[in-house]
Amino acid sequence: MTLSLHGLGVSRGIAIGRVHIIERDRLDIPEYHIGKDQVETETRRLLEAVTLAKQQLRAIREHIPAATSPGIAPFIDTHLLMLDDAVLTQEPLRLIRTSGHNAEWALKLQRDALVHVFDEMEDAYLRTRKNDIDHVVNRIQRILLRQKPLRHEEPDSRLSGYILIADDLAPADTVLMQYHGIVAFVTEYGGPTSHTAILARSLVIPAIVGLHEAARFAREDDLVIVDGNAGVMLVDPDEHSLRYYRRQQQEDRKYYAGLIRLKETPAKTLDGVPVELQANVELPQDFEIVRQVGASGVGLYRTEFLYMNRDTPPEEEEHYETYLSVLDTMAGLPLTIRTMDLGADKQVDGGRQEGPIQSNPALGLRAVRLGLKEPELFRPQLRAILRASAHGKVRLMIPMLSNMQETWQVLEILDELKAELDGQRVEFDGNLSVGAMVEVPAAAVCADIFAEQLDFLSIGTNDLIQYTMAIDRVNDEVSYLYEPLHPAVLRLIRTTLEAGARADIPVAMCGEMAGDSKFTQLLLGLGLREFSVHPAYLLEVKKIILESDLRRLMSIADAALQARTAAEVEKILARLETT
Ligand code: PEP
Ligand code: MG
Questions:
Q1: What atom in ligand 1 is closest to the CA of residue 439?
Q2: Residue 302: CB within 6 Å of ligand 1?
């Protein structure tokens, strides 16, 4: 009998294949006591397991296929750093020495103690760090238990065509999926903007997260269908479902193959209004694809990745060299460099001291707040962006501004740096455009004030929705409230667009909402004329733009703004499909 299970579809597409279940949390940990004469051997056994775990992770890191998104390696590095942390091993070593526990049990006790601390805090962000502890501890436990590595880590193609089901997936697991030909994955936990979801989208494989008890209903080698669009997994599908989804797969393939033909077509609506279609990029290596899909520039270059997984923050020269090489790849296309947005779910490990744990990191010292507090992180980047502006079309964008004091402070620093560069006879673009991300509701409400002082705005819907709805981006328990169509979100978008129009400055959108073709027509109707999206979604958004009649969309957008709920907005948008 076909079983239909529902979760959150986070990476679209359809996959049909047999199941491989990763039973990460079902290790049988033995408990026994050792004699005094075995203490040395047991401590050595634990330390050797930790060393081997590190070697395994390094090997996985080295095997990252070239075609894989470069954003993946930093996640593996996080686990490597945890393996280096004494907190994980010091207490188990003490327990082996003082209580005579075996290594596995001593490690389990420490794992439980650490997880308990996180549980007590009841903080969604820290809960995601709890998962990291489990990933790392389980790797060590497997070595101690002399179990074979997980089947999906073996460097062969036996899992080609398989669909992975796991409680949660570590970055190291996710990276290997492409390597082994895994065609989709389903996890029991995780939110739509969790690391796992983001990685799935960059690997372009269908994925569902938050499908609770998936591994209870599907068994190893069962045939399943994963519909990443609807977030549905069908276990043991009947002939009728198989036929339907196979046809769907073929149609999808044809559709995406057809899209590439639109690469050179100018993005404009049926009634001739031009629309800017730019790309979001995270790492210097990703810039090649920007040209491949015919983006008119980069509307969001997330630079925080330059600061990650290293002992010291990047110096001015490194920033400068990186931006120069990116400009080189862009060959004349405009580049919007966002200053570092470290903090919250993007760890700060670029040489900073460990600070106190923030109980609400998304509301804490993040992005421009951190930059202004720690100028040694921020000023070298600003100087490098100024210098790079002499060599191409560069714009500078500041994340997370929430008031004008912060804006003035950044502008003042820029003036100081310009004077400094002038004094040193170093070239820069004296008219460098400086803009703000509108991602805090306060900035959207006061967009007119920001627009007076800045050259452009860009709406960051990922955070704007998070802060408007008061939900954590990475917590699957509240992901049902992540509603881009909530009237409050739409009104903030409209307010920002109107403020930009009145001040005669461009307003872009670079959050995930801009790349979701379901929303393209509504955004056009609301007045958006600059989209910055993941390159994989750019041509699909272009296709919708080419089919859109703006005059009609404006009245649809006006109606959406009067709606009381996201569901009502959806109904209004559905009218577009029926006429
Ligand atoms: C956003 O918040 O919408 C955004 C684009 O920035 P990030 O996802 O990097 O926070
Ligand atoms: Mg943001």
A1: 2
A2: yes
Compare 119 and 453 and report the one with higher pLDDT.
Answer: 453
| Tokens (6 digits) for 372 | 């202004």
Q: For 14-64, what is each residue's pLDDT tens digit?
A: 999 999 888 755 666 888 888 888 899 899 999 999 998 888 888 777 766
End-to-end Cα distance, the chain: 38
510 is catalytic: yes
Q: Classify each residue of 508-526 as buried b or exposed e, where b means 16 or more C-beta atoms within 10 Å of its C-beta.
A: bbbbbbbbbeebbbbbbbb
DSSP assignment of 333-378: --EEEEPP--BTTB---BSPPP-PPPSSGGGSS-THHHHHH-HHHH
Distance 511 CA to ligand 1 centre (A): 5
Q: Which ligand 1 atom sits nearest the alpha carbon of residue 344?
A: 10
Q: Is 367 left (phi over 0), alpha (psi -120 to 50) or beta?
A: left
**Ligand 1 geometric centre to CA of 463 (Å):** 6
Question: E strand or H helix at 531, and its extent?
Answer: strand 530-533
Nearest to 201 by CA among 483, 535, 540, 544: 535
As a dihedral over the C-alpha atoms of residue 87, residue 93, residue 98, residue 99, rounded to 10 degrees, the angle is 100
Q: Are strands 207-209 and 8-11 parallel, antiparallel or unpaired?
A: antiparallel
pTM of the prediction?
A: 0.69
Please give the order of strands across the beta sheet that includes 163-166: 3-6, 232-235, 223-227, 14-22, 163-166, 184-187, 207-209, 8-11
* Atom nearest to 193 CA in ligand 1: 8
DSSP 16: E
| Best residue for ligand 1 mutational test, from 201, 402, 439, 513 (most atoms within 8 Å of Cβ) | 439
Query: Which tens digits make up the pLDDT trace of 58-89?
Result: 877 776 656 555 556 777 788 888 888 888 88
Contact 342, 366 (CB under 8 A): yes
User: Residue 195 catalytic?
Assistant: yes
Residue 84: partners with Cβ closer than 8 Å, 6 or more residues away: 54
198 pocket-lining for ligand 1 (C-beta < 6 Å): no
CB 402 within 8 A of CB 443: yes
